[in-house]
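To: structure subgroup
Subject: Chain for Friday's discussion

All,

I'm putting the inputs and outputs inline so they're searchable in the archive.
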Amino acid sequence: MIAKRTAEGSQASSYDAPQDCPAEKARQGEIILKTKLARAIFFTGLFGGIVSFWS
């Protein structure tokens, strides 16, 4: 959090209040795997996590 000095000398936060944001935008909604390498790395990690969980 970044604080700024006001004219009175007190500190005011630059983060005043939370803004409304749709849930889909907040959690990003999807995983985008554009290249074959990205897909291979993702699925290898997913498979490795599942196998390590069951062993």
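Points worth raising on Friday:
The mean pLDDT is 75.
The longest helix spans residues 36-54.

D.
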